[in-house]
Design brief:
2 domains; 12 strands; globular; 6-stranded mixed sheet; Phosphnate-bd; Phosphonate transport system substrate-binding protein; D-Maltodextrin-Binding Protein, domain 2; alpha/beta; 22% strand
């Protein structure tokens, strides 16, 4: 009887703590992955910060454009970030370290209804590389150790084409500090092939309809006519928007509802933060990412 009373008291205290936390929240801290340069990320997310601040009458909404994916991952694990859009592998990294740290709540949906994308390998046309097989003994560029399309998927899937691990097939592999930097490394001839995220649909001359390739083409940073796609992965699940569980259920629902309404309420802001051919957010849960969690655990651990 005493044990039951103690457990009930603990449960009530936890509920009271969550309620107080929800009522007293003054600042919301949003982590932004390092896909683009910092200035572009801050500019694109400014509307989101302003919208959240106004909607919930917060004192402050802080944006944290981490230098790399691990910065966002550690922020969520350490409780210094509250909300972030993660890649599937980044979510897997958080989950494998602490399954109770965050909850995936939403995933962006493309206009064709899909909730997935591809890792693609890009090379300069002038290199003479037409397929990944032609890149034997060349340099491969990765984006970030915690990127799905920029590391985990090419690490595990390119060998299914070449028949050998990447560190045996290529002369060297290197990380280039994010997706945009990785693509630019190939464009500038610093690596022979770069792997990055892409919708893989639409016109190549537009950099397809979404993803890093699309963003850098839209900004005029690269001329797509000088590039060629040399490899494409199987379909990858879009990464989730996650909310730190420590915020409590009330704030998790408020934040989820805000994002769900954003595409219709402020389409311009939605397009700015998603950067491509997306139409909505749809609900998601952990089950959608179990295959990626399993692959990451087997390939590179937590």
């Amino acid at each position: 009887m005493l044990k039951k009373m103690l457990l009930a008291a603990v449960a009530l205290a936890a509920l009271a703590g969550n309620a107080a936390q929800a009522a007293d929240l003054k600042e919301l801290r949003i982590g932004i992955l390092g896909g683009e340069n910092e200035a572009d990320r801050l500019r694109n997310y400014a509307c989101l910060a302003e919208g959240l601040k106004k909607e919930f009458k917060l004192d402050k909404v802080s944006l944290f454009p981490a230098a790399d994916y691990d910065g966002v991952i550690q922020g969520l694990l350490g409780g210094t970030l509250d909300v972030a859009g993660l890649g599937a592998s980044g979510y897997a990294a958080v989950y494998l370290k602490d399954p109770k740290a965050v909850t995936p709540v939403l995933v962006p949906q493309q206009k064709d209804g899909s909730t997935g994308y591809y890792s693609i390998g890009l090379a300069l046309k002038s290199s003479g590389i037409k397929t990944i097989a032609d890149a034997k003994g060349k340099k491969l560029g990765y984006a970030d150790p915690d990127s799905t399309s920029g590391y985990l998927v090419p690490l595990t899937q390119i060998p299914k084409t070449t028949g050998v691990p990447n560190d045996k097939f290529f002369a060297s592999t290197q990380f280039n500090g994010g997706h945009e930097n990785n693509l630019l490394a190939a464009y500038d001839g610093k690596v022979d092939v770069a792997v990055d995220d892409s919708s893989g649909i639409g016109d190549f001359k537009d950099g397809f309809t979404s993803g890093t390739f699309h963003k850098v083409v839209a900004k005029g940073s690269v001329d797509p006519n000088k590039l060629v796609e040399v490899w494409r992965s199987p379909l990858i699940p879009n990464g989730p928007l996650v909310v730190r569980n420590g915020l409590g259920q009330e704030w998790m629902k408020k934040i989820t509802d805000f994002y769900m309404a954003l595409p219709k309420k402020d389409e311009k802001c939605f397009n700015a933060i998603e950067g491509g051919d997306f139409s909505a957010y749809v609900p998601v849960n952990h089950d959608f990412y179990i295959p990626v969690v399993d692959v990451r655990k087997a390939a590179i651990g937590g």
